[in-house]
Amino acid sequence: MNKAMEIQLEHGTLKLIPLMDGKLILAEKTNGTTTKGEILASLKKVGITQGILSECITLLPREDIQQMPVARAYYQDEPPKFEVHFGPKIQEQIIGDILEGKSIDLIDDRLLVKKDFRLVSLTKPFRTILRFPDGKSLEKTELDFRNLSVFAGTNTKARDDAIYAATEGSAFLSKWGVVHVHPVLTIKGLGEIHGRVDDQIAVKVEEDIHAHSALESPSNIFVLGMIHSSYIQAAGYVQALDGIDNTKRSDNSRIISGKSIFTSYVKNYRLIAKEKILVYGGIHQSIVISHDEVISNFIESSEIRVRNRLLTNHIRGNTRIYLGAAFFRDEAYKQRILHNQQKERQLSQKEFSIEEMRDRLEREKLGILKYLARLREEGKDKIFIDSTLTRLYNALKGSLVKLQIEIKDYERQLAEYFTQKMLLSYYIRESSFKESPQIRVLGKIDAGVIITAPNQVVKLTNPLEDVTIILDRYSGKIHFKR
Amino acid sequence: MKNKILIIDNDEVTIQVISHLANALNLQSLVMHNWGKSLNFKDKEGLLAVFVNVELSFVDLQILLKDFPQNGDVDQKDKVAVYYLYSKSFNRLYQAAKKFSCAGELKKPIKGEALFDCLKDLIDLEGSIDYSEQEYRDKLRNYKEYLRESLALVKKLETYFE
Fold first, then answer.
1. Cβ atoms within 10 A of the Cβ of A457, count?
2. Would the CB atoms of B157 and A368 count as touching at under 8 Å?
3. Do B147 and B81 lie in a common domain?
4. Which residues of chain A neighbour B25 with C-beta distances below 8 Å?
5. Which of A67, A351, A421 sits opposite B112 (nearest CB)?
6. CB pairs under 8 A between A and B
7. What's the confidence (pLDDT) of residue A383?
8. What is the CATH number of the domain that holds B107?
9. What whole-number distance in Å separates Cα of residue A316 and Cα of residue A332?
10. pLDDT of residue B38
């Protein structure tokens, strides 16, 4: 933002004035009244989303305050960029195949890695970036550390500019940028009789997962048969070649994936994926929640919550679609933010304690030096046997040891805080989707389908064909494009 | 490093506006409600500018300007810019204050742009941009440096006991 602009509010006008080439944004109420929420919404509308000064925005609605700074640029440590050497690549070809109803091959071999396999390589190092209030960023300097161990998860090791597998197994890269490898357990089938399976392994099931099973994995789950009425949770990918069906109508049937879900069809199920949900058959009477994209041949009488894009041939029956980030609660992200805020508080407490220790140490230093000077003045030669001096010296030494421990602890906490901050930055960068959220229907979308946007609900009264429904992020409303 | 400003006023709105803009520029603000006599002001070295409401009867401007001289014979490095704050141009105290030289004047209600114009020449704008990670790194470096110096002193003292 380089030029001043005026924003029309419900009961007034807000003028935004950029200073320092858009690095500092002032807001002025030129007339009327406003609220904090309205100011925040209008800033978002014009793209001012970074470096928001909440305290100032709280004060601006006051009648006696006309002008306040509302956002400022800031420097940030930017996580590196990687090239990932494993995993499925969701290209246009695969998307085309899904829409044509062609099956997707088993992806387990693409995630299988040998010991010492190079999992990821650094393509862009750690660097400092200047982030402007309007979201633009400027790369400044490369940071002088290249240690990738922050991103080396279970059974992996960071060496030079890459991360390698420390064991043979199934790999996946989490949304936080951490790469993990787990050994694979291959089993024939899984049923209620096996109880809850939650070992630190990736699982490959050669036949079906039968009803009422419970399987949790910190890695990937591959099922060559079908998943029936079971609770499945994986930090990585989930693939069920023959489909996912809640045949027993069990309330506990759900599949939660930290990455993507691949299957042939979904029926009466609840699916939640942090990334994509790819179904080359259809989705029937299910609840499907994707933090990224849903790509399915067709959708029938289901509830779909999609953050970025829904791509399908047909939408039938009483389907309801929720489009946009407003319908998602990202608990893991919130937890990390809270954790970081807590760490910041702990660090500031530690700083306070170190400062106190420094003050005490300074006093002790002064005390001992003064005493030494006095001893010299008095002409004492055997000062090493002076008991007061010994006491002062021991006290100083003791305080110094305490300070040393405290600084070490501060360094450890700081490293932990930086790690979490780096992972958060990676997550934010990788989760941001530049294009507007949209629903693309290549074939027909039936009358009666309900589309819910943050500020609008549309029930189709007529069927539509070959249509794109785009969400305007700022107004929270949708528009149709043929 | 000069990174503080002093506000002498009792008007809450003015204090809020100035201190929040200063905060956005990574400056610390100190607030005083009067300046009746010369004070042994501890933080004088870190001061960049003083914003004083000249309409306050309990601010003795002459004494203030003695502490923060504005005329040319002061070393530029040690000079602390004094800005007058006023609300009425016909105010008797303001008219009296005009006899003394100052760095500039700001009419109330204070506009952020005008305030920024006062501060922009006094600070390194690029350096004023927030970089919390670097601040933490600098703090840790300072702590370690201090620890090293203290350990060296203890080692030196140790020789007395040998």
1. 11
2. yes
3. no
4. 24
5. A67
6. 104
7. 63
8. 3.40.50.2300
9. 33
10. 59
> Which chain A residue has its CA at the smallest distance from B160's CA?
A384
CA-based nearest distance B152→chain A, Å: 11
Q: What is the pLDDT of residues B28-46, one digit of tens each?
A: 998 887 776 656 666 677 8
Q: Which of A181, A212, A229 is the last residue of a domain?
A: A181
Mean pLDDT, rounded, of chain A: 90
Residues of chain A with confidence (pLDDT) below 50? none
Cβ contact B134–A75 (<8 Å): yes
For A404, other C-beta atoms within 10 Å of its C-beta total 16
Q: Which residue has the tokens 């807000």?
A: A14
Find, in chain A, the residue whose alpha carbon is nearest to that of B110: A67
Q: What CA–CA distance (Å, rounded) separates A405 from B17?
A: 42
Find the CB nearest B147 among A130, A347, A403.
A403
Residue B19 lies in a domain: yes
Bridge partners (DSSP) of residue B53 are B85
Contacts of A100 (CB under 8 A, 6+ apart): A297
* B111 inside domain: yes
For A354, the closest chain B residue by CA position comes to: B143
Prediction ipTM score: 0.86
User: Do B76 and B138 have their domain in common?
Assistant: no
Residue of A23, A65, A73 lying closest to B17 (CB–CB): A65
Residues whose CB is less than 8 angstroms from the CB of residue A59 and which lie 6 or more positions away in sequence, other chains included:
A65, A68, B16, B20
Please write the tens of the pLDDT for every residue from B110-125: 888 889 988 888 888 8
In a domain, A47, yes or no: yes
Q: Do A407 and B143 touch (CB under 8 A)?
A: yes
What residues of chain A lie within 8 A of the CB of B110, using their CB?
Answer: 67
Tens digit of each residue's pLDDT (9 = 90 or more) over A86-131: 988 877 788 888 888 888 888 888 999 999 999 999 998 889 999 9
Q: Which of A48, A57, A64 to mutate to test the interface with B (most CBs of B within 10 A)?
A: A64
Q: Taking CB atoms and an 8 Å cutoff, what residues of chain A touch B131?
A: 74-76, 128
Q: Please name which of A396, A478, A476 lies closest in space to residue A44, comparing C-alpha atoms.
A: A476
Domain that holds residue A103: 77-181
B110 is in which domain, residue-wise? 4-120
Q: Which two tokens stand for residue A402?
A: 């305490």
Cα(A81)–Cα(A79) distance, integer angstroms:
7
